[in-house]
């Protein structure tokens, strides 16, 4: 899947090493994993779940490339049977350039094509750039608690 500046490619088990390194970068894991170390086992579970979601639903986690350089990850992940959430992480060297928004818009489009009507976005209370991104994506504030703000993007066909 491509955007104006990015190439998004499905992530899989063969990406385990590079994604463990990406997700364990201090500024990435700070908000995505509540500053906890991402073990190879956790990363493997996320990637296996993603491969299953791609096979069953047509969406999962995509690696984000800009000029053939991996700059992050963006994708959709099932939360139980009822909800799907969008996740994104970007190498801090690429923050502030609108790449997360560009990737997220492409991923929301994939969700729309897969028949999804609602996507959950959870952001840490202290992550102002992610709050702004949720609003830029058209998400409506749903509530907060446990140190998180919850937003919902409604997808129209």
Write up this protein.
With 157 residues, the protein is α+β, with helices and mostly antiparallel strands. The protein has a single domain, classed as Gcn5-related N-acetyltransferase (GNAT) (Aminopeptidase). The protein has helices spanning 16-23, 26-32, 40-57, 99-113, 128-136, and strands spanning 7-10, 61-66, 69-79, 83-90, 118-124, 140-145, 148-154. The strands form 2 sheets. Strands 1-2-3-4 form a 4-stranded antiparallel sheet, sandwiched between helices. A hairpin with a 2-residue loop joins strand 2 and strand 3. Helix 1 (16-23) crosses helix 3 (40-57). The mean pLDDT is 93.
At a glance:
The protein has five helices and seven strands, in the order E-H-H-H-E-E-E-H-E-H-E-E. The chain has 157 residues and is of the alpha+beta class. The chain is globular and about 35 Å long.
């Amino acid at each position: 899947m491509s955007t104006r500046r990015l190439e998004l490619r499905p992530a899989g088990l063969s990406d385990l090493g590079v994604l463990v390194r990406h997700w364990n970068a201090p500024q990435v894991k700070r908000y995505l994993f509540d500053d906890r170390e991402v073990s190879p086992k956790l990363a493997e579970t996320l990637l296996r779940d993603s491969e299953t979601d791609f096979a069953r639903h047509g969406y999962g986690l995509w690696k984000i490339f800009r000029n053939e350089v991996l700059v992050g990850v963006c994708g959709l992940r099932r939360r139980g049977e009822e909800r799907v959430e969008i996740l994104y992480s970007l190498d801090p060297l690429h923050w502030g350039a609108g790449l997360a928004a560009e990737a997220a818009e492409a991923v929301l489009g994939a969700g729309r094509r897969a028949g999804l009507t609602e996507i959950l976005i959870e952001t840490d209370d202290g992550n102002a750039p992610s709050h702004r991104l949720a609003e830029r994506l058209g998400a409506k504030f749903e509530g907060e608690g446990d140190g998180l703000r919850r937003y919902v993007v409604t997808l129209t066909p």
